[in-house]
Design goal:
176 residues; alpha+beta; two-stranded antiparallel sheet; 5 strands; elongated; DUF922 domain-containing protein; DUF922
């Protein structure tokens, strides 16, 4: 599971997210709902040696209203798992890898919550759309860096001690 190959796939997916705004569909992140291998419906990449790839992303929509010169903005922000873009090699599925992939989706939820907080504390002007897009892009950059760090430190779930540390870290961050 090469870091470069895995993150090229994820980076490409994140570029799609940024470039086209929102991707419709997908499975919403919900507390207590866990991914199953049957959720991974995509075809494994022929050029990647990754055991599995989780395609997840953050979507948002907003409406704004100018009230007496003050811009008020309402947001809807969600974390999604995209089954058709997520895949597993039939020769490698096991619970350790599935847990690793679940944490990728959980990390997306952590950054979804961060995006909600950033939107809530921001002050917007007449350039709301551009300002919202800038905050979104910054959070996606942070998300990508954190996902890369997770894979590097856990060696894609192979380092069981580090994987256990990350399991605890993510559980705590999600308030579980």
């Amino acid at each position: 599971m090469g870091t470069l190959n895995l993150w090229l796939v994820l980076a490409l997916f994140l570029v799609v997210e940024i470039g086209f705004g929102q991707q419709e569909g997908g499975v919403l992140w919900q507390q207590g709902n866990r991914l199953k291998w049957s959720d991974f419906k995509g075809k494994p990449s022929l050029t990647s040696n990754a055991a599995a790839v989780t395609a997840s992303g953050i979507t948002y929509s907003f409406s704004s209203l100018n009230k007496n010169g003050k811009i008020e903005v309402d947001f809807k922000v969600d974390a999604h798992f995209y089954p058709e873009n997520s895949w597993v090699r039939s020769t490698t599925p096991n619970t350790a890898i599935l847990n690793h992939e679940q944490l990728h989706f959980d990390i997306t939820e952590i950054y979804t919550r961060k995006l909600r907080r950033e939107f809530a504390k921001a002050t917007f002007t007449k350039n709301t759309k551009s300002e919202v897009r800038g905050i979104y892009r910054q959070i996606l950059k942070e998300l990508s860096n954190y996902q890369n760090r997770y894979d590097k430190e856990t060696n894609f779930s192979r380092n069981q001690e580090k994987q256990m540390e990350w399991n605890k870290r993510i559980k705590l961050a999600l308030g579980q």
